[in-house]
Amino acid sequence: MGTKYKGTKKEIKILDAYIKFTRASVSLDTQLNRSLTEQKLTHSQFGVLEVLYHVGPLNQKDIAEKLLSSNSNLVTVIDNLEKLELVTRERYQQDRRNFIIHLTDKGKKLISELFPKHLKIITERFSVLTDKEIETLGKLCKKIGLNVEK
User: Fold this and answer.
1) Are the beta carbons of 102 and 48 closer than 8 angstroms?
2) Residue 50 has pLDDT above 70, yes or no
3) Is the pLDDT of residue 150 over 60?
4) Can you list the domains of the chain with their CATH numbers?
């Protein structure tokens, strides 16, 4: 179902594409979040674990930038991951106000089991697209994402 908005042809096309884009995203996120719920993790917590798993230890600011999240929101996420014993904070020697976040062995084990399941779901959902369509989708999403008002 497309938009019922009565605007210009271009506005209607854009809204229709946006609705489809959003529904696809929500549908995929809903499926991915089911496995997170089983592990009692939030989407943000999974994001932190995944970044640390693939990139290595980082400070909170760098994690926030990679996840497009606010640093203040990330403090709560990391606090909760620390309570679950999935990450630890280590004071940065050059700046004692700064912390480096590390995965614990428990965190590494969890994300190493969860990530392949997530990748499988994503791969299955994207399998309806050709390699060229996937490449085009990536470029288009990046183009939209970088079109930020300054």
Assistant:
1) no
2) yes
3) no
4) 41-146 (1.10.10.10)
**Which tokens go with 23?**
């529904």
Q: Is 82 helix (H, G, I), strand (E, B) or coil?
A: helix
* Cα→Cα distances 83→45, 86, 100, 107, Å: 12, 8, 16, 12
The encoded tokens of residue 89 equal: 């904070």
Tokens coding 68: 């497009």
Query: Do residues 73 and 44 lie in contact, with contact meaning Cβ atoms separated by under 8 Å?
Result: yes
Length of the chain in terms of residues written? 150
Distance between CA 38 and CA 129 in Å, rounded?
Answer: 29
Residue 93 CA to residue 100 CA, distance in Å, equals 10
